[in-house]
Amino acid sequence: MSEVFGTSDKSDEVDSVGSQGDENTVEINTNSNKHPKIVEGMPEYKVLAESNSLDMILYEYIRLLFEEQKSVINLYARETQVERLRKSGARALRKNAQRKRQRSI
After folding, report:
1. pLDDT digits (tens, 9 = 90+) for 49-92
2. CA 58 to CA 53: how far, in whole Å?
3. 58/78 Cα distance (integer angstroms)
């Protein structure tokens, strides 16, 4: 999922408050067990997908929603950039026109 959502690959790291009486201590707990990566197409993936079918449906919906939102945000960013270019172009045209008027005086 980290590739889809652009998050770090450290999904097993969790911040927690220290439990030895020092409440200002922050520890990073990591998963001490190494698990093999399960990739789509592997038999293990199929078993997990079947046993978690509702989670898979939700995951696919979230991926689609994320892509839709990303395209809207990108469109907004492009429109903002185009508007900035228009404004700077208009400013440059006005300055150029002022210079031409000053030269003709």
Report:
1. 999 999 999 999 999 999 999 988 888 888 888 888 888 888 88
2. 9
3. 30
